[in-house]
Structures are given as C-alpha cells and as structure tokens.
Amino acid sequence: PAGAERAFAAMLEMFTPEQARRGVIAVGADWGRRVLESTRIPVATVSTDPAVEADWLALPERDRDGLAVVVAGRDGRSVRTRVRLDGAGAALDEREFDEYGALDLGLALVLLEEAGWELEQVQEALDRVGGLDLREHREHDDHDGGDDAPVEREAGW
Stretch 126-143: mean pLDDT, rounded? Predict the structure, then answer.
C-alpha cells in the first residue's frame, strides 16, 4: 500500500548522512533488509534468527531463574541480562516476551554500543542492578482521588 511505502521512505530518511553518522537495523523482516540495501551510512544489523546474516544476534533464554536475553556479536562479544516481568501488574509474562522483546532489547543494547559505550560498561551496569525491570508500576494521583491512574511502563537499569 502507498501508506506503507510513504512510511518506509520517511524511515529511510533517518539513515542518511544528513541525519545520522551510524545506524542500527533489525534485518529479520523485508523492511529491515530494504533499509540495509538502501542506506547511505554505516550500520550494525541485529536479528533474532540465527539463519539471518547479522552483526548481532538477540535471543531470549529461559532457565530455572527466569528469563534472560543474550545479545551476541559475530566478533565474540556479548551482553547477557536478566529481564524481570513478574509480579503484580506485569505488563507481559515470559510467554509473551518472545523474539520481538528480545529484538527490541538487542536493538537498544547495540545502539548503546554504536553510540560509543563499551559493552563491558553496559554489562557491569546491568549486573549491578540485576538486569532490566520491565514490569508495570501503577502511579496513583492523590489529588483526583482515583484508584485507576494510568499505568506507566518503567524500564530501568
């Protein structure tokens, strides 16, 4: 559809030398591969599918302690973090944190690396706080007396 092509053209504009020095692209879908083919800046690529050629692979892992995500580069470097989704009011449960959640986290971590953060610094920060807390937290506004305040997602580390 024409609307999708307009959205793609607008997105592609972000991957020009006038807008950015470097970029990060998810290459698991056709749109990402099209951006990769058309970009005029250096980019890092991220996928959740080991069969797709990418600079970084982001995979969810489940073990007895819960959920983690590993983001591994072709160069052997990696970051691993726990992801907390449990607890009252959880926005997602572990069954819903699938490849899309891992991809979003992978994109964010690779963006940090591309922005100049050392992966060791990122890993230390994640370890220091025990991973990422993606649970919802309810905020109550005492002034209006309502118990149904909007839910805000806090992602912290």
Answer: 71
CATH superfamily of 2-153: Mur-like, catalytic domain (3.40.1190.10)
Q: Is the pTM of this model over 0.90?
A: no
Q: What's the mean pLDDT when you consider all of the chain?
A: 82
Q: Hey, where are the domains in the chain?
A: 2-153
Ramachandran quadrant class, 13 (left: phi over 0; alpha: psi -120 to 50; beta: rest): alpha
3-state secondary structure the chain: CHHHHHHHHHHHHCCCCCCCCCEEEECCCHHHHHHHHHCCCCEEEEECCCCCCCCEEEEEEEECCEEEEEEEECCCCEEEEEEECCCCCCCCCCCCCCHHHHHHHHHHHHHHHHCCCCHHHHHHHHHHCCCEECCEEECCCCCCCCCCCCEEECCEC
Q: How far is CA 121 from the centre of its chain?
A: 17
Residue pLDDT, tens place only, 13-49: 999 999 999 999 999 888 899 999 999 999 999 999 9
